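Hi,

I'm pasting everything inline rather than attaching a file, because the server keeps stripping attachments. The sequence lines come first, and each chain or strand is labelled.
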Amino acid sequence: MSRLVMKFGGTSVADLGRIRNAALKVKAEVDRGHEVAVIVSAMAGKTNELVAWVREVSPFYDAREYDAVVSSGENVTAGLMALTLQELGVPARSWQGWQVPLRTNAAHGAARIEAIDTTLLEQKFRQGLHAVIAGFQGVSPEGRITTLGRGGSDTSAVAFAAALGAERCDIYTDVDGVYTTDPRITKKARRLERIAYEEMLELASLGAKVLQTRSVELAMRYKVRLRVLSSFEDGPGTLVCDEEEIMESRAVSGVAFQRDEAKVTLIGVADRPGVAAAIFGPLAEAGINVDMIVQNISEGGATDMTFSCAVDDVPRAERALRTARDLGAIDWRELVTDTEVAKVSIVGIGMRSHSGVAAKMFATLAREGINIKVITTSEIKVSVLIDRKYMELAVQALHDAFELERAGG
Amino acid sequence: MSRLVMKFGGTSVADLGRIRNAALKVKAEVDRGHEVAVIVSAMAGKTNELVAWVREVSPFYDAREYDAVVSSGENVTAGLMALTLQELGVPARSWQGWQVPLRTNAAHGAARIEAIDTTLLEQKFRQGLHAVIAGFQGVSPEGRITTLGRGGSDTSAVAFAAALGAERCDIYTDVDGVYTTDPRITKKARRLERIAYEEMLELASLGAKVLQTRSVELAMRYKVRLRVLSSFEDGPGTLVCDEEEIMESRAVSGVAFQRDEAKVTLIGVADRPGVAAAIFGPLAEAGINVDMIVQNISEGGATDMTFSCAVDDVPRAERALRTARDLGAIDWRELVTDTEVAKVSIVGIGMRSHSGVAAKMFATLAREGINIKVITTSEIKVSVLIDRKYMELAVQALHDAFELERAGG
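And the predicted assembly:
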């Protein structure tokens, strides 16, 4: 009998009516002959409420207690979903993370999954009982409840799909798939039938908030076929799969963007070995998520170092760099920040075999009169920093230039 | 080091401010040198919300899923209380039932405690960590979450007090102790300094809703000294203890009452062995909680059988009795119901050594012109059924007659 993992996010189980709607989708798959493991999030808003309580009580909270509190929302949904399935004639029971058990390390609040023991689940499947599993949670070596970080239910779902050898992991959400770009930017945005793990990973980390990045990494590692689809309308969604499952890849699959970026440049940095470590070490310690990094030759034995980060991180980044300079760890002539930039990226596994993709991107932006401030590239993506006010224009122009509104690929 | 169990009910932890207020009381006991185990209920209203969801989803719900859902409220409070204590400088951690573990049988929704393994708790006490334990919940032999029935947190608290050898179990609630009668009926009602387990048990089951009956039974069996006191005002509360700790017991300690009673009489029942079983068997099967039972000789080899039950149970009781008659299991001439009665009881361990207590009760009621419909007695209580409209009057008259407004005893 084939197995299926079906994951429902917070908006898909926001109230009893939506839980019933989700349960009907589960019943349909059960009726098609699948053994189903359902992974549920907390009802929309519940986790935020619990997090707010924890923060109000204890601003620098004990993460073990945070986990004990915030994991409770998923337990409620799991029980209610199991009951709803039973009412629909689908034999089911709920599982909390520790009951499975899903074992994690002790990094409370952002725990990593170490192992899923499926013995008990398998036993119940053999008895005809479908599983409803509270997402987002596990149990530490010490027997305390852990959580996997915000959005962790996606990761739970993929991990269970891998552990149970599921044919597919269906992620039900409030969008009907992965798009070539955000439909709010251009109406020509089109749902992709299929997308490769690597592409999804770039899109996820570039700001397309459909799937948690970690869940895509995990799916790629264990070759779990992921399907992203809507809880609220019927449709095939988007299959995230191995690139071998994608017939003919086009050069570019999607255009991603990140609006609130900032550019920080250190001018006149002494150009000697270890200088990059001296700069980025303190930034990492300060918890700054540095994204693009570019180093240019500067005049007189010095170099210019530019990096991008989130706008909100700029004050802390400046403070960390000035402190490091005061301590004599680094030196520079000038620190320049630009908080009015955005990042636009084109992503596609086809870039590997198509040449001239980057050149076409630059030409397109030039034609629109958009100045490029920083460029970085990887095997399957090209990213540029541009003035924020041109962001929508750039996305629209690139979407047109690479003909993403056309189906195929 | 002496141990204390402190239990806070739903109104005592209804919001973050009240949790802090409760935590301050815990801190005071910790500062006095106690090792403390705090037992918490769900925030007021939470359990009702969860129960309503379960019932809406599934009217004849799977009790295992009911337990998985409704137990979550206590987990939230336990985590928040542990965090609040930490903020006050009291080292503490939360425990869910399965983490302790508190083992129960598999009677989901109303599970019985089978054992509390205190090994881990003791280990953490030795490390200086006070315990915050989610009340109301345990784990079944199969590893599923169980709950102890509504109000079960009192039972949790007493069980932990027994298992941990606590010096006392303090039950914080929204009243400041156990009263000689309900202060809403007479302003002369007085808080008792001490009350014996047996008396408390009679008062609890007679409608004084301060403590769950089971928790008092458990306290009596394990000689756990219980103190009932208010979360919202300072005061000594009432100590529920062994009668040996009560110096000089007076004849009557309190007057209890139950307003919504009904009297059902079967007239002309054939008087032969087994007739009581034939009547009360079907009532038990129908889930009717029969309270007082009186049998009188009737004319011509027949007998009259009278019992009391809750007004709401009368239609089901009538149906069960008529069905039993249709099946030929019993026979009677007439079935008479009176749904306008109330029960009033006087309770006191001193009755054992004081004579004439019942006579004084009857004389008091006669003086007020109140007709007694049914009488039952036990070693430490006398109960009567009277017309409901005289209930307040009867309680006031008995409170005066036995001079309960006077301290002492």
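The mean pLDDT of chain B is 92.

If the labels don't parse on your end, tell me and I'll reformat.
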